[in-house]
Amino acid sequence: MLLLGNAPFGTRSPAMELAREIRMRMRDDLCLYIAVAGYACVGLAILTFADHTEMLSYGQYFGQWTYLFLVFMPAIAILVDWIHVMVRFDRKRSRAMRSVFSAQRLSYLFSGMALLMALMFFQGTFTSIKNALPLLRGGFLYDATLADLDALLCFGVDPWRPLFSFMRSEIIFTIVDWNYSGAWFLVCFGTLFFVVTSPRAAAVRVRYVAMFMLVWAVCGNVLAAAFISAGPAFYGAVTGDVARFAEQLSFITSGDGEHNIAMFQHYLWTLHEEGRSGFGSGISAFPSVHVALVTMNAFFAAEISKRLGIIAFAYVAIILVSSVYLGWHYAIDGYVSVVVVGLCHFGLKWLMSEERRRVPLDPGDGAPARA
After folding, report:
1. DSSP string, 205-264
2. How many other C-beta atoms are found inside a 10 Å radius of the C-beta of residue 348?
3. Cis bond leading into 287, ω under 30°?
4. Which residues constitute the domain of residue 189?
5. Per the domain annotation, does 210 fall within a domain?
6. In angstroms, what CA-CA distances link 285 with 227, 228, 231?
7. Across the strands, what pairs with 368?
8. How far apart are CA 97 and CA 257, in angstroms?
9. What is the pLDDT of residue 259?
10. What is the pLDDT of residues 224-245, one digit of tens each?
């Protein structure tokens, strides 16, 4: 068995080898754990000094996050590996199985799962800060400005109007809603799980997770606080102008157009009005984290191949258009997300490449020496 058995004197048992490999992986991830802890300390300090600790949301993530990343996705990963071996190999199945479930391979899985549990606290901090932003800023201040800028960039009309001129369809709405609310989640968090648990992504593991955290913190907290806005779905409630997006929202919330999105928008606004936190709660439109996360993935995909990058950026365009069509965002929210993520991506890539150049080389093998 993989984790049992007596090891000869002077050699490591499989369990000892696995533990050593996990320690190595977690040591490589140490900077990420420090970043999560620092972010949590900043978030707790902000909410404590502002006297808004009622917005803390850590407990909201425990059930769903642990099931997703400790049970569901690991089970899917193991099943996929098993099926791959059974289909691909015949006589050498036992050797392939030993490779798939080797100490090195499992160390990536287990250390990745540990890192994902740390990111659960990161997400809890993000949501806690996001919940408090309207209270810290005294309301939603920039909706009218952003909506007017949106119209200016769209030749004098709100961007949802030309979209509705040819996309006002029950079938289209259902597809767009499903993709934006469901497929987006699978793409973004499935990719996150793959990167942190697969040795095939080891070269970008730290940089990818660092970018993941930058997207949420910079776009979802810093810029969201600087240009606090609620988005088209809540435009009438925060500006008093209920007519501007009335036709769009009427389709979303009434008749055959009523979908899960309408219920979720109602859920978010109810929590906001009652001053409570919940899973995925908090309202802020600018910039779009939905667009930002798929843009981040697109830049990484482009590093793998030009064709994959084209497909990924096409998906960015679909999500950006969907965010406007569904009433979550102004188009400018998506434009800014693409630019900010691009700057962060290339900036972080340059910084990490510079850091690697400063790491002393081990004269024995020419590889960067471990600290």
Report:
1. HHHHHHHHHHIIIIIIIIIHHHT----GGGHHHHHS--STTHHHHHHHHSGGG--HHHHH
2. 15
3. yes
4. 16-353
5. yes
6. 9, 7, 5
7. 361
8. 50
9. 58
10. 999 999 999 999 999 999 999 9
> Which DSSP symbol is given to 368?
B
In a domain, 106, yes or no: yes
- How many domains, the chain? 1
Using only the alpha carbons of the chain, give its radius of gyration: 23
**Sign of torsion over alpha carbons 187, 189, 190, 194:** positive
Give the integer Cα–Cα distance in Å for 111 and 28: 10
27 within domain boundaries: yes
- pLDDT tens by residue, 58-81: 888 888 899 999 999 999 988 888
Cβ proximity of 108 and 199 under 8 Å: yes
Q: What is the pLDDT of residue 10?
A: 46
pLDDT beneath 50, residues of the chain: 1-10, 361-371
* Burial of 324 per CB tally in 10 Å (0-12, 13-18, 19+): buried
Judge contact between 291 and 336, C-beta under 8 A: no
Strands (E), 265-322: none
Are 326 and 176 within 8 A, CB to CB? yes
- The residue among 135, 173, 143 whose CA lies nearest residue 329 is 143
Is 5 contained in some domain?
no
Tokens at 96, concatenated: 């392939």
- pTM across the whole model: 0.88
pLDDT at 208: 97
